[in-house]
C-alpha cells in the first residue's frame, strides 16, 4: 500500500506500477463532509499504514479507470469501514461482494450509533453530496 486518497480510495504498488483503487461496495463520506470524511480517511490510514501488503479482489473498473476491488489486509477493509460506522454500503454497486454481510455490518453500526450513525438516520449520504455538487456546478 502506498497512499490513502480519501475514505474509500487508495494507491497500491502492483508489480512495477501504481494502481488507483476504489474500495468496492462502500461509499465513505466526502472530505468536505467535516468531520466525517477526514475521520474515514484517518480510519483507513490507521488500518493500512504505508508499506502494508494488501490483497485485491477486483470486481470492476470505474469511469475514472480505477480498479474497484475489495481490499484485504488482515481483514476486509471495506467491510471494517462499514462495521465501524465510517462508510455506507453502496447498494447500487454490490456486485462481486457478499451483499448480506455488508448490509448486516451496516445495520450493526447504525444500531450501535457508530461514526456516521451518531446522527439519527446517519449523515447525508456521500452520493447525494456529489450529486448536489454536480447540480450546483452545472447551474453556474
Strand % is 15-25%
CATH architectural label: Beta Barrel
List segments where confidence is low: pLDDT < 50 over at least 5 consecutive residues. Answer: none
Helix fraction bin: 25-40%
Q: Radius of gyration, rounded?
A: 15 Å
Draw up the topology in text.
Blueprint: E1 3-6, E2 9-14, E3 17-23, E4 26-27, H1 36-47, E5 55-61, E6 67-72, H2 77-83, E7 88-89, H3 99-112, H4 126-139
Parallel strand pairs: 3-6
Antiparallel strand pairs: 1-2, 2-3, 4-7, 5-6
Helix pairs in contact: 2-3
Question: Short description, anyone?
Answer:
The chain is an alpha+beta fold.
Explain what you see.
The protein has a five-stranded mixed beta sheet with strand order 1-2-3-6-5, covered by helices on one side. The protein starts with a strand and ends with a helix. The protein has helices at about 35-45, 75-85, 100-110, 125-140; strands at about 5, 10-15, 15-25, 25, 55-60, 65-70, 90. About 35% of the residues lie in helices and about 25% in strands. The protein contains four helices and seven strands. The protein is globular, with a radius of gyration of 15 Å. The mean pLDDT is about 95. The chain has one domain (about 5-135): OB fold (Dihydrolipoamide Acetyltransferase, E2P). By secondary structure, it is of the alpha+beta class.
Amino acid at each position: 500500500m502506498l497512499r490513502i486518497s480519501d475514505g474509500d480510495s487508495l494507491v497500491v504498488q502492483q508489480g512495477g506500477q501504481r494502481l488507483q483503487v476504489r474500495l468496492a461496495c462502500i461509499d465513505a463520506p466526502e472530505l468536505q463532509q467535516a468531520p466525517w470524511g477526514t475521520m474515514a480517511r484517518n480510519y483507513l490510514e490507521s488500518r493500512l499504514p504505508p508499506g502494508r501488503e494488501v490483497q485485491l479482489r477486483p470486481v470492476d473498473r470505474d469511469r475514472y479507470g480505477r480498479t474497484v476491488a475489495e481490499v484485504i489486509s488482515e481483514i476486509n477493509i471495506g467491510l471494517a469501514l462499514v462495521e465501524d460506522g465510517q462508510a455506507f454500503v453502496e447498494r447500487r454497486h454490490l456486485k462481486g461482494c457478499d451483499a448480506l454481510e455488508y448490509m448486516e455490518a451496516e445495520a450493526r453500526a447504525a444500531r450501535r450509533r457508530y461514526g456516521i450513525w451518531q446522527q439519527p438516520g446517519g449523515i447525508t449520504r456521500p452520493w447525494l453530496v456529489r450529486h448536489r455538487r454536480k447540480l450546483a456546478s452545472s447551474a453556474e
